[in-house]
Design a protein that fits this description.
seven-stranded mixed beta sheet; 63% helix; 7% strand; alpha/beta; elongated
Length: 529
């Protein structure tokens, strides 16, 4: 029976670890690091290097040129963060399953323990299915919230089972347990309120994520006031939860004759976590959403859930009649010490993982001379000559390839260029360049007319013509690393080049997520100047 108790404690810790890793997946943008389920990029094992990932993505997308956009959105670091999340989920699932079958062996006479353990196991299986739906729906907020809600309920069930199993293991006498305790009503109310508040928090994060996409130039502190009603629901329920939690904790702490030392110790921990949560929330509002603080905000919220359920069960024990009160307090202190050590370890590992995921998204992707625009000669639509110096002028440049009679991707690609032209009209250090891939038919006059079709009269968006097809193909392949099958099968990628002639990234003209990344990268590079 002691073995079952150890398994339940380990399973509870694994579940909390899984919640932490899940938060890490969220803040590092790794939710779609493995875009398929249950495999990862078509294999049971994910790629081990950025090069292998790029090869797999090339096979998946079957597009011309290097698949830099895909690698940048979900770099190899993000792939492994998501994959480790799945492994942790599988390990936790097996642990819960083992506990469920052990409960049948050791606790047949105690249906509450058996039912609690099997309910946790069934919910864990459902969580696995929800995980697959989360991937297939591309992180739809409501599914993500349900996924998180399930984890909170599983934690509560495991804590309940652990306390009841400890009660049976150490043979706590029946007269040491109260039938009913008034505080239990307030505790279970606060437990429900905490789950609601955490759910509001998940929806708020989804709202801020959408705002960040729509307003890439804004900081987190700028976005928070724009979050709308969900912001006030989260803040209001958060303050209400905090006030009630502290009131409950203080009442438990003061009533020494009514509650065991372990319960009063747990009440002090509840006060500390409440204060940390409030400080964290205030920090978000005024200073932005630091990734690791987001993870701990969620993790501490899940600790709320576990502590409240522990208090819900353990506040029934009568100190004077509790034969193992001192032992339970020592066990609780040891557990708290272990939990603090775990927090420090997780914070260190989590910070490194987030930093590595962000580093994987840093531009440029190409290195050395391959990333540099090579010399060329071209003519702009108004007749003046242009060269590679255009890309070494200190201006950020977005490049695409097109021809005026194209009826396929060119109108769509140029529509994106037109939107960028309008968005960055007031930024003197941003320019657009379109290379014609059909110099035979695209005369300077036709390019001028085509620009007029898009309402472009200034030189912020340049349209260039290279007379000789071999030179154009050489530029496409050797300088921009895209296809040279002109004109019909030219690339649809947009290419970002910094003011030093370095290719920074590639983006898909027909992928909204990719285009949002492009806009975000432009604003990031502007701010670095």
């Amino acid at each position: 029976m002691k073995l079952f108790l150890k398994v339940i404690v380990v399973t509870t810790l694994l579940t909390y670890s899984l919640i932490f890793i899940g938060g890490l997946v969220r803040v590092s943008g790794s939710g779609l690091g493995c875009p398929d389920w249950p495999k990862c990029h078509g294999e049971w094992l994910p790629p081990f290097s950025a090069q292998e990932l790029a090869i797999r993505l090339m096979d998946e997308t079957n597009v011309d040129g290097p698949s830099m956009h895909d690698v940048r959105l979900h770099p190899i670091q993000s792939v492994w963060i998501e994959y480790l999340n799945r492994l942790a989920g599988v390990l936790t699932g097996f642990s819960v399953m083992i506990a469920a079958f052990m409960s049948l062996k050791f606790y047949k006479k105690y249906p509450k323990i058996v039912l609690g353990t099997w309910a946790a196991f069934i919910l864990t299986c459902i969580e696995g299915g929800l995980g697959a739906i989360v991937v297939k729906t591309e992180l739809k907020p409501i599914i993500v919230s349900l996924h998180m809600l399930g984890a909170m309920i599983i934690v509560s069930l495991l804590v309940y089972v652990a306390v009841r199993a400890w009660e049976k293991e150490y043979q706590i006498p029946a007269d040491a347990i109260r039938d009913k305790q008034p505080m239990q009503k307030w505790i279970i109310f606060t437990w429900i309120l905490s789950i609601v508040q955490i759910t509001f928090g998940a929806l708020l994060r989804a709202r801020l994520q959408q705002l960040r996409i729509d307003l890439p130039a804004a900081t987190d502190a700028d976005l928070f006031p724009l979050a709308g009603t969900i912001k006030w629901l989260h803040i209001g329920s958060g303050w209400l939860t905090a006030i009630i939690c502290i009131a409950i904790a203080l009442k438990l702490i003061k009533a020494k004759e009514l509650y065991t030392r372990a319960v009063r110790g747990a009440a002090w921990v509840l006060v500390i976590i409440t204060i940390l949560e409030v400080m964290n929330g205030i920090g978000f509002k005024h200073f932005g959403l630091d990734p690791m603080m987001q993870v701990f905000h969620l993790w501490f919220g899940s600790m709320y859930i576990g502590l409240l359920f522990y208090l819900y069960v353990a506040c029934q024990y009568i100190p004077a009649k509790h034969p193992h009160e001192e032992k339970s307090f020592i066990s609780f202190v040891r557990f708290c010490g272990f939990a603090c050590s775990l927090c420090i370890i997780f914070f260190t590992i989590g910070t490194y993982a987030v930093q590595q995921a962000e580093k994987g998204r840093e531009v440029p992707y190409l290195l050395g001379e391959e990333a540099k625009v090579l010399p060329f000669k071209a003519t702009e639509r108004y007749g003046h000559e242009e060269s590679e110096k255009l890309f070494y002028s200190g201006k950020l440049t977005v490049v695409n390839f097109m021809f005026t009679t194209c009826k396929d991707i060119c109108p769509l690609s140029n529509n994106v260029m037109s939107e960028l032209h309008a968005e960055f009209a007031s930024y003197d250090d941003v320019q657009l360049v379109s290379f014609s891939v059909d110099p035979k038919n695209d005369t300077l006059e036709s390019l001028k007319k085509y620009a007029g079709h898009w309402g472009i009269e200034d030189q912020k968006w340049k349209m260039l013509r290279i007379e000789e097809i071999p030179q154009l193909r050489y530029l496409a392949v050797k300088s921009f690393h895209v296809t040279d099958d002109f004109p019909e099968n030219h690339t649809g990628k947009l290419i970002l080049i910094d003011g030093q002639g370095t290719i920074r990234d590639y983006y898909e003209y027909n992928n909204p997520e990719s285009l949002n990344v492009l806009r975000r990268h432009i604003y990031q590079l502007i701010r670095k100047k």
